[in-house]
Here is the input.
Amino acid sequence: MSDGHLPSAQEILHDSALFQRWRGPFGAVPVQFVGELKQGQYVYFRARGSKLAMQIASSEEHWQNSDYLATFEEPYFDPEGGPLQAGLCPADFCANKIVVWVKCFIAAL
Here is the structure.
């Protein structure tokens, strides 16, 4: 933005127009996010240890049974993060990663 304002995690998620509802990113060690896409799929994201991970399932029940439509995972390293690393990942970084991965999922449908 031209005024130097960086969007917050909530602004990033809202502006994506991908979700009908969500909670997060919240917490630390791990950072977590749960949401429901406009098409109804359940999304769970977690940043913990040395990785970021997200699963998409047709419902929360399917997610609880590890019945995923898609999974995403990548390493995360912060040279100043110490042993907690991804568990202290900034919320706006997590929100951007969630949006990128959801867009990948939708593009593959």
